Hints:
- The structure is a single chain.
- This protein folds into two domains: 80 residues, Fe-S cluster assembly (FSCA) (GMP Synthetase, Chain A, domain 3); 260 residues, P-loop containing nucleotide triphosphate hydrolases (Rossmann fold, 3-Layer(aba) Sandwich).
- The strands form three sheets. Strands 4, 5, 8, 9, 10, 11, 12, 13 and 14 form a nine-stranded mixed beta sheet that branches. Strands 1-2-3 form a three-stranded mixed beta sheet, covered by helices on one side.
- It is 35% helix and 22% strand.
- The protein contains eleven helices and 14 strands.
- By secondary structure, the protein is an alpha/beta fold.
- The chain is elongated, with a radius of gyration of 22 Å.
- The chain starts with a helix and ends in a 10-residue tail after the last helix.
- The structure holds adenosine-5'-diphosphate (ADP).
- Adenosine-5'-diphosphate binds next to α3, β12, β14 and α9.
Amino acid sequence: MPFDKDAIRLALTRVQHPALKADIVAAGAVQKIAYCDGFASVKLAGANLHADQRRGLEQQAVAAIRLLAQQSGAELADVHVEITSDVPTPPAPGHRPIPIAPRETDPANPLPDVRHIIAVGAGKGGVGKSTVAVNLAVGLARRGHSVGLMDGDIYGPSLPTMLGLSAFETSVRGNMLQPFLVHGIKAMTIGKLVDPEKPLIWRGPMAHGAFKQLVEQTEWCGGGELDYLVIDLPPGTGDVSLTMAQMLKLTGAVVVCTPQRVAQDDAVRAARMFQQLGIEILGVVENMSWFVGDDGKEYDLFGRGGAQLMAQRLGLSFLGAVPINTALRENSDTGNPTHNFTDTSPRNRPLVQALETLTTNLENQAALASMRMGASAPKLSIS
Ligand code: ADP
């Protein structure tokens, strides 16, 4: 895991501002971050803080940076924190972090009761990443697993529509957001916390903060356990994936791709990003693989098999292909993914089969990945 200025900024999101109801990054108190060869230097705006608060802030900032360096395996020779008398300048108004008090979590493992965390990514938008994430989550839940689905696509959240959340009210209990219980899963999305008509413009640190809140301040487990948490990532290779990799211990990632060559090129970049972030790729999904016409014939529109070949070329597993299906699009638009699995009409059969195959392959790949990570190793105790 690279330890750099972004990592230091992330570490600073874990430090609460002594006077404002926000972490110091969201509060706009971080003025400068520099890092070179094990030497970190940070300047924080500390107007109106008294001496004790300044000292506390300095100590917490140093501790947070050192802890993240240790977790990233980086050697840190020195950390210098300067507190200036400047006034913090919070980011431009628009989408501030959700105004609830932050919760203390173990930074090394903020979700200890989740067995498998699986990210769903894609090289670019519109290839069906959210569709696949939703249907994998619902498919896993239909197999009896307890499943959470988090909309990590904070720039363009799709879950409010795809899960039919428009009539649901957001609810906060204590300082925890209550996930929406729909289609047998627990879901949370930034789309229900912001004005749906406003553009979602997040600067780097705000994106970190929003993602972090969705992870840490959603009551994913409620005292129990979750077998799977599926995270729908933003398309491409940006900030949010970096935050996720630094915050969470993932079982692995799924890369969604359409068959065309241009889509494959982007998907290769997404796959390389996961690899660079140290996230195992559980497999590739080829979406919009083929089309079944009214005549019952299968039509190859985009070059069926292209994503599968790409997976082979990169030495990645192939989880399966999903056909272009009007019902799939309609069920997404009307927020009823369960119908993808329960529609028993002959026309829907290829879709059901495709989704069942995907789910089975994902279950198997996640189990294998966990074994490789040592999570499933039997514990031997001798008394
Ligand atoms: P992304 O998350 O990659 O931006 P979405 O999952 O939002 O893509 O899908 C984009 C649009 O394509 C949505 O309207 C969705 O319903 C539709 N869609 C995705 N996959 C399929 C498919 N296999 N058949 C028909 N429509 C699909």
